[in-house]
UniProtKB/TrEMBL annotation:
Keywords: Carbohydrate metabolism, Glycosidase, Hydrolase
Role according to the record: Invertase that cleaves sucrose into glucose and fructose.
Protein name, UniProt field: Alkaline/neutral invertase
Organism listed in the record: Urochloa decumbens
Region (Disordered): 97-122
Length: 603
């Protein structure tokens, strides 16, 4: 039994369900019953699955959630308070009522809606309908949304699963709409998956790892071929392409947990024993001591949104921005108790060191680029200017002409003798959202996006990175990846889902007009193009050559951006204000100047 699972047995109960399967629309409920009457074609294979211990534990955990709901049934007074609090913060952001499409998985495959979709009055209405159709149900309750829901896709691969990172914009959209149940269920069920045993080739990762995704499967019950039950089947990276563990999943989970509490007003979820335990496990995994000399988080290639080989191994900006944000969010939510004192102290120390490191060494503008151009190398001393021994010849020719006189950005990666000068959108945007960037740096990043609009936005927002790796560089760094060809997918492709992060960053810096301009660009064609996963070419003129259609986070990202532009104050559930304690520590450190080091001896 895992730590989180054991906590469920001891806690007094903490939430009441908003609805049950019987309260769902008749059409969705009837469709789900009909699907469950179709037994699995390969029942022998699924009988083998029954021998897997973790599938048995899924059934126990499902029962525990139901029991908790019955124990606390009727004690849902917090719902009224939550709705009142949400209405004060968000205003009326609801959309017309729409039927909830049941999308419970059968035989590991999410059921697809009919190919002929009804016409709606607007792009936004269509997006809400599609988001509802992507919902996945487990034990009669919504627990997430599948990655893509194209009715004409006969081979969905793993796009019929619920991905933690992909669900974040969906979860935010549901929160802004006032539909809290699906987000609460997602938080609690993914938490249970955290405690499962996970191995690959006889090796187990550290405790606290969150899965990349999970699937709802319907399997026959032991000894009764006519009865079925639903189980959760997670993937921690052992089935993923490249077998890379998802470092960002746990960080996004913490960020969503805080957003849920702020938006719904329900703080009982984050105060639960099992949730507090799960959060501490994630933090301890990230804060564990290692060989690294830097406060940044060391990860392998492909451990975040860019989940294929793209030369981001080391200390990629995206992970550092999410790490910083998750640390701040966790500090808000951790209960003050004796067992948390050391963790909170380590967390505060890491925040200060990480903030200084990123602001000082990752920042690049015209002035900093000129400094690097004049760097001396091979400096052996405690007060070296070129601390990481960066060779000026690393400066790529494209950057000299590309960087504007006004504006700047955080580079993609920093390691000894290596700077990755590419612009990575998610890392820079979330540096603004999390306040890892200073106010000046945050405005400079938006200045750069505005100045380089034709490169980073063009005909569809937003380039995941710029520029693309090409020719020999593409062959060496990606291993000649046929999916990450130049200006495609992660290699300079344009991803509509990044629209919501751009919107939050712009609203935080009081520049909503920049986000509104990007939303207008997306709205011209995204629905007509059937909501692609990504776009190809330098100006994002083509739908990606391997892009999935009806991609859920493209849909949800658009909806969140629209909602936030209409109600900017709602974006506060996502951003972190600049921390006064960190500012004070950094300013004190600068005032002291260089430390006079005592002479040391090797004994």
């Amino acid at each position: 039994m895992g730590i989180a699972e054991a906590a469920l047995h001891t806690m007094p109960g903490a939430f009441a369900t908003h609805s049950s399967a019987s309260n769902l629309p008749l059409g969705a409920d009837a469709r789900r019953r009909k699907r469950n009457t179709n037994l699995v074609p390969n029942s022998r294979a699924l009988q083998d699955l029954l021998k897997i211990p973790r599938l048995r534990s899924v059934r126990r955990q499902c029962q525990q959630i139901d029991d908790l709901a019955r124990v606390t049934e009727g004690n849902g007074n917090w719902v009224k308070d939550a709705m009142n609090n949400a209405s004060q913060v968000l205003g009326d952001v609801s959309v017309p009522d729409q039927a909830v499409g049941g999308n419970g998985g059968l035989n590991g495959n999410a059921v697809k809606p009919p190919p002929q979709r009804r016409k709606t009055s607007s792009v936004e209405d269509e997006a809400w309908e599609l988001l509802q159709e992507s919902m996945v149900y487990y034990c009669g309750s919504p627990v997430g949304t599948i990655a893509a829901n194209d009715p004409n896709d006969s081979d969905p691969a793993n796009y019929d699963q619920v991905f933690i990172r992909d669900f974040i914009p969906s979860g935010i959209a549901f929160l802004l709409k006032g539909e809290y149940e699906i987000v609460r269920n997602f938080i609690l069920h993914t938490l249970q998956l955290q405690s499962w045993e996970k191995t690959m080739d006889c090796h187990s990762p550290g405790q606290g790892l969150m899965p990349a995704s999970f699937k709802v499967r319907t399997i026959p019950l032991d000894g009764d071929e006519d009865a079925t039950e639903e189980v959760l089947d997670p993937d921690f990276g052992e089935a993923a392409i490249g077998r890379v563990a998802p470092v960002d999943s746990g960080l996004w989970w913490i960020i969503l947990l805080r957003a849920y509490g702020k938006c719904s007003g329900d703080l009982s979820v984050q105060e639960r024993i099992d949730v507090q335990t799960g959060m501490k496990m994630i933090l301890k995994l990230c804060l564990a001591d290692g060989f690294d000399m830097f406060p940044t988080l060391l990860v392998t290639d492909g451990s975040c949104m860019i989940d294929r080989r793209m030369g981001i191994h080391g200390h990629p900006l995206e992970i550092q921005a999410l790490f910083y944000s998750a640390l701040l969010c966790a500090r808000e939510m951790l209960t003050q108790e004796d067992g948390s004192a050391d963790l909170i102290r380590a967390l505060n120390n890491r925040l200060i060191a990480l903030s200084f490191h990123i602001r000082e060494y990752y920042w690049l503008d015209m002035q900093k680029l000129n400094e690097i151009y004049r760097y001396k190398t091979e400096e052996y001393s405690y007060d070296a200017v070129n601390k990481f021994n960066i060779y000026p010849d690393q400066i790529p020719p494209w950057l000299v002409e590309w960087i504007p006189p006004k504006g700047g950005y955080f580079i993609g990666n920093l390691q000894p003798a290596h700077m990755d000068f590419r612009f990575f959108a998610l890392g820079n945007l979330w540096s603004i959202v999390s306040s890892m960037a200073t106010t000046h740096q945050s405005h400079a990043i938006l200045d750069l996006i505005e100045s380089k609009w034709s490169d980073l936005v063009a005909e569809m927002p937003l380039k995941i990175c710029y520029p693309a790796l090409e020719n020999q560089e593409w062959k060496i760094i990606t291993g000649s990846d046929p999916k990450n060809t130049p200006w495609s997918y992660h290699n300079g492709g344009s991803w509509p889902t990044l629209l919501w992060q751009l919107t939050v960053a712009c609203i935080k810096m009081n520049r909503p007009e920049l986000a509104a301009k990007a939303i207008e660009v997306a709205e011209r064609r995204i629905a007509a193009d059937k909501w692609p996963e990504y776009y190809d070419t330098k100006r994002a003129r083509f739908i990606g050559k391997q892009s999935r259609l009806y991609q859920t986070w493209s849909i949800a990202g658009f909806l969140v951006a629209k909602l936030l532009i209409e109600k900017p104050d709602a974006a506060r559930i996502l951003w972190n204000d600049e921390d006064a304690e960190i500012l004070n520590a950094l300013s004190t450190n600068r005032k002291r100047g260089k430390k006079v080091l005592k002479k040391t001896y090797i004994v």
